[in-house]
Amino acid sequence: MHIKESTFWFWFLVAGLVIFAFLGIHVVVIHLSAISGGAYTKTLSYGSALQRAKSTFFTVGYIILLAALLYHGLYGLRSLFIELFTSRAAGRAISWSLALLGLATFAYGTYVTIIAARLAS
Amino acid sequence: MGGEPVKTVTFKITRYDPERDRATHAQSYEVPVPKGMTVLDALIWIKNNLDGTLTYRASCRMGICGACGMFINKKPMLACQTQILELGSDVVEVAPLPNYANIKDLVPDLGPMFEKHQAIKPYLIREDKKEQENPIGEYLQSPEELEDYLQLSYCIKCGLCLSACPTAASDPLFLGPQALAQAYRYSADSRDEGFAERLPLIDTEQGCWRCHFAGTCTQVCPKGVDPAMAIQFLKRWAIAYDFGFGRKREGAPPSPLHPRPGIAKPPERTAG
Fold first, then answer.
1. pLDDT tens digits for range B193-213
2. What is the pTM of this model?
3. Which of A113, B171, B210, B239 would be A86's cystine partner, CB 3.0–4.6 Å?
4. CA distance, residue A74 to nearest chain B CA (Å)
5. Which residues make Cβ contacts (< 8 Å) with residue B249, sequence separation at least 6?
6. Do A86 and B171 touch (CB under 8 A)?
């Protein structure tokens, strides 16, 4: 199945927007706790972290953020590499290597997130 | 151009004879420069008076043929359009255009650019091939429709844009600003129905997605074409087409069978 470059680019833009949104939530919840309604120390307390780990919202959010970060970052890295190594064979090798790295990292990250959620409950 | 020389300018010109030289080298010439003298005038003067072996490519000497593109003081320019006194320097460096193989002295091999241009099908494409080969009337176009691509039609294929492009410098397979701008020029033409046919070449790693919007192509274009803008529009169209709401429009029908509102009726066909 051939995926067009425009499709990759479109999801690259979408991932960028997702990262912006989720990191925005992260900054507000964790670092701007005065705005989000908690003291700085309370947000970073063990209990508070445990609450977030248990929460379905945060668990799903972490997984989505992981996917977006991996896709956006690795696609950008691919763009850099395929311009340094310009042969078609090198391009294919770079694309597949980064895709496998991304999938493996996503699988492990999702596993860790779900395990953490289970342990926290 | 004429009159007494205003000053003497040193021209440091890159020389290369493939039959004798292993690498390029610079050679200097002193040229008396009157007001109005262009770099091309100086090269012609050098060839006539100092060194008959100097080789360069030129034709119209008025900025319309695109033949005399050169690297002048480290910037791609047309030699016939570059006034020496406006460079503001007593030393003018003239080299062949970068990003192209060098044939001899100041003559670049523009073949790859023309191949890429040819590859994007730089002509009107109609879905009804029979009608296109046997036209029954003109394809009418309003002034507003002409404005959609007019700026890009000014391209004279001089190659300066590809020479300035940092991506073309690293990747010879990149289609380049000239070909991509012309792909947009024809796809944006209301008479054209060929965007889908060009898309397999545009929507690739070596197509519009390799452009990172440096903008140097637009900066150096001597005719005011904006290839950088055209490539960004191509990216937008490629994504829109992917999701089914792209350029699937009918081209302007041939007149006079289908007169279009707002466009004056064309004159009747004469006999013959």
1. 999 999 999 998 889 999 999
2. 0.83
3. B171
4. 15
5. B193
6. yes
